[in-house]
Amino acid sequence: MTSLTTARADSRAGRVAGQVLGEAGIGVALVALAGFFLAAAPHFATSGNLRDIMTQITLNTILAVGMTFVILVGGIDLSVGSVIALCAVVAGKAMEGAGSSSVPLAIGLSLLIGALCGLISGFVTERWKVPSFIVTLGMLYVARGAAEQYTDARTIYDLPKGLTTFGTRTFAGVPAVFVVALLIVALAWFVLSRTVFGRLVYATGNNEEAVRLSGHRTSLIKVVCFVIGGVCVGVAAVIYMARLGVASPILGQGYELNAIAAVVIGGASLSGGRGSVIGTLLGACLLGVLTNGLLLMGVSDFQRTMVTGAVIIVAVVLDAYRKQLMTRLSA
């Protein structure tokens, strides 16, 4: 028993050390990138631009936090871009032409729709042991079609002023929507690092069979992670409506790829069991800073897309070297 406890402690210590090393690496890369744009783009460090960066990375941060839970258990969710559109139009319909009193109901509907889509994806994946890649690809089309059918492909504009006012509000110079994103990051960090469920999430991603043999229902853990991802999508839909004052059935295209990119750049393993929401936040910040800085430098959309893709590839390669280093240090 003592040796087993020691092995578990050593494994957890190794995982924590790997996370710290990965977060430090992405943090250094973020600082270096910001330093480059400080020199190359004169307007990069203005207070207005910094607020813009925080606002721009808010949605991706929230979506990426939910994606982190899914990836930690070895899954993937390709449907978040379409689900955010479905959540937005359902919530937008509830608020269309109504006053601010309709906002709580709309928020609840958005969270419920997101959770339900996550539940369906997780349940189908685990009940029939279908790869989550395929299931969520199907959900991508279902949710997008449902959003367009529900609104007859019409964008909803008449949203309560109270919601849109919050979308433009700042606290001590920090956008209110970004504060929401930081609170979600803090909550997710607490769940993953300070609760039994969080330890089970990591354990399931590392060795699902061992967790199952110890008496835990790994299928339930995975489904809950998909539901958490769906709830984050629901929150992101509300934030989108608060920022732009519209609910569109065509929003969210490509959002799932940005979320996955933030998680991967943040040091998570697509095979599961390794990653952190702090790393995810840093990954989202790096993508946001990169996009904003290149835009200020006058780089075209096509070139920015190429650079972003190259950064993701480099991050994966560096992560492979980091894993080799950690293996040698633990040997």
From TrEMBL:
Name the residues that span the membrane. 20-41, 61-91, 103-124, 171-192, 220-242, 254-270, 277-296, 302-321
**Gene Ontology CC, one term:** plasma membrane
What are the GO MF terms of this UniProt record?
transmembrane transporter activity
**Which keywords belong to this entry?**
Cell membrane, Membrane, Transmembrane, Transmembrane helix
Q: Name one Pfam family in it.
A: BPD_transp_2
- Domain of life here? Bacteria
**Places the protein is found:** Cell membrane
Keyword Repeat attached: no
Q: What is its main location?
A: membrane
Xref: CDD domains:
TM_PBP1_transp_AraH_like
Q: How does it sit in the membrane?
A: Multi-pass membrane protein
- Which named protein is this? ABC transporter permease
